[in-house]
Specification:
The protein is of the alpha/beta class and about 170 residues long. It is about 40% helix and about 15% strand. Helix 1 (about 5-20) crosses helix 5 (about 145-165) and helix 4 (about 100-110) packs across helix 5 (about 145-165).
């Protein structure tokens, strides 16, 4: 899970992560935050392989504190869910953008668990961030965390079933 650098966004991702930790999901769940000094996406760019860590240190010397740590490119994920929870009471519409496999999974989760999405319609939009490494989806709006939790639970079962079939 990932969230933009704003506090409300991060709290949505964090709360979703905490609720998932209480469940027995089939896949491990990771709360992921990118290094994003000055609003850049350098952490994500290094993970994607678009930039080297050295380029990041040259561009943003404050990141040198991470020098010598594990190589970001070696960290693997099966999907990225960006959770952007709107403030309570804002009644912001739920929108979903991203990879086709995850936007469809989110749409299905919203339909199957309408009460989990607050009985709100979910708008699926084209575009958004495209990852070279994994499916990526942004779920944004009021109750985005609840919809993300339901979708992640279901997607975890899907990924686990894929690996069970390799045996």
């Amino acid at each position: 899970m990932d969230a933009l650098s704003t506090m409300p966004s991060f709290s949505g991702a964090f709360n979703t992560f905490l609720s998932l930790q209480k469940l027995d999901t089939k896949c491990a769940i990771t709360l992921l935050g990118w290094s994003s000094p000055g609003g850049s996406t350098i952490g994500q760019e290094v993970w994607e392989g678009d930039r080297t860590a050295t380029e990041g240190y040259e561009r943003f010397p404050e990141l040198e504190q991470f020098k010598g740590g594990e190589e970001a490119r070696g960290f693997s994920l099966s999907a990225i869910f960006e959770v952007l929870e709107s403030a309570a009471g804002s009644d912001a519409p739920l929108t979903v953008r991203g990879s086709a496999v995850l936007t469809e999974a989110t749409r299905r989760a919203a339909t199957a668990h309408a009460s989990s999405a607050g009985n709100k319609a979910v708008t699926v939009e084209s575009g958004g961030y495209v990852s070279k490494r994994v499916p990526f989806v942004t779920i944004q709006g009021t109750d985005a965390g609840t919809l993300a939790r339901v979708t992640i639970e279901r997607y975890s079962e899907y990924v686990a079933a894929l690996f069970e079939n390799f045996d």
